[in-house]
Amino acid sequence: MSQAAATSAVSTDPSRRARLAEFWYYFSENRGAVIGLVFFIFLVLLAIFAPLIAPHDPTQQYRDAVLVPPVWQEGGRADYLLGTDAVGRDMLSRLIFGTQFSLFVGVIVTTLSLVVGVVFGVIAGYFRGWVDTAIMRVMDIILAFPSLLLALVLVAILGPGLVNAMIAISLVYQPHFVRLARAAVMSEKSRDYVVAAKVAGAGHTRLMFKTILPNCMAPLIVQATLSFSSAILDAAALGFLGMGAQPPTPEWGTMLAEAREFIQSKWWVVTLPGVAILITVLAINLMGDGLRDALDPKLKRS
């Protein structure tokens, strides 16, 4: 018995490594995706080690260093490499700690949207009938509103704050996962392995979440990656409008909102958070394109 198990483990391990090698082959063909992946790993490390890397406390105000320009400009100081904001807080430290909040928002929003959306999508695609109709009509109603506007209304009802912003954004993103999961389940439901599992006596829950769902994950993973970047962008937009993270939280959108009056006079206070948002969202989108190329069999070249 043990020899058979060992033989099975040895035989499946090469196939798993072959699948990983195939995935990396198609992913690495997209150079933009590799660059995005490298930058994303850099952001994760920056967020984890932010307390060790940041030269100052992001909320500490240095009254003798208000609106100090970056070190390469006249009047800059070596203590504040990227300058300071209107109340004397170090811009570099706030940008580094802002990485934590942006990645946290992306992880929470994507996880909530993915889990809840997949559950409803699998149920709708598996049972069809009135259950499918009821779930999809609710999703259609949510999709009928502009996503940022709906998130803004929900945050206005729940109250300003980062937690409420994440809840609102995750609710807005759920229909995309519901529709993807439903379509994937509908295409997989009639396949031979599902029929065989049903004949073997598998119940509905096992069929939905253990038999069918694992074979539907490729498009969901790609959508999760793209939703991750969109969540960061929407959270920054809500922060800019004063409905997301509240001062003195070093969140990039909130930093932009605090610097609006200095757009024409103190460029670094506005430009640096905007560039951080731009590069982060671009890197994650490039990584999402690579995942799509690697996971979608229609895009794989022979």
UniProtKB/TrEMBL annotation:
<feature type="transmembrane region" description="Helical">
    <location>
        <begin position="147"/>
        <end position="173"/>
    </location>
</feature>
<dbReference type="InterPro" id="IPR025966">
    <property type="entry name" value="OppC_N"/>
</dbReference>
<keyword id="KW-0653">Protein transport</keyword>
<dbReference type="Pfam" id="PF12911">
    <property type="entry name" value="OppC_N"/>
</dbReference>
<feature type="transmembrane region" description="Helical">
    <location>
        <begin position="33"/>
        <end position="54"/>
    </location>
</feature>
<keyword id="KW-0813">Transport</keyword>
<dbReference type="InterPro" id="IPR050366">
    <property type="entry name" value="BP-dependent_transpt_permease"/>
</dbReference>
<dbReference type="InterPro" id="IPR035906">
    <property type="entry name" value="MetI-like_sf"/>
</dbReference>
<keyword id="KW-0812">Transmembrane</keyword>
<dbReference type="Pfam" id="PF00528">
    <property type="entry name" value="BPD_transp_1"/>
</dbReference>
<feature type="transmembrane region" description="Helical">
    <location>
        <begin position="265"/>
        <end position="288"/>
    </location>
</feature>
<protein>
    <submittedName>
        <fullName>ABC transporter permease subunit</fullName>
    </submittedName>
</protein>
<feature type="transmembrane region" description="Helical">
    <location>
        <begin position="101"/>
        <end position="127"/>
    </location>
</feature>
<keyword id="KW-1133">Transmembrane helix</keyword>
<dbReference type="InterPro" id="IPR000515">
    <property type="entry name" value="MetI-like"/>
</dbReference>
<feature type="domain" description="ABC transmembrane type-1">
    <location>
        <begin position="99"/>
        <end position="288"/>
    </location>
</feature>
<comment type="similarity">
    <text>Belongs to the binding-protein-dependent transport system permease family.</text>
</comment>
<keyword id="KW-0472">Membrane</keyword>
<keyword id="KW-1003">Cell membrane</keyword>
<keyword id="KW-0571">Peptide transport</keyword>
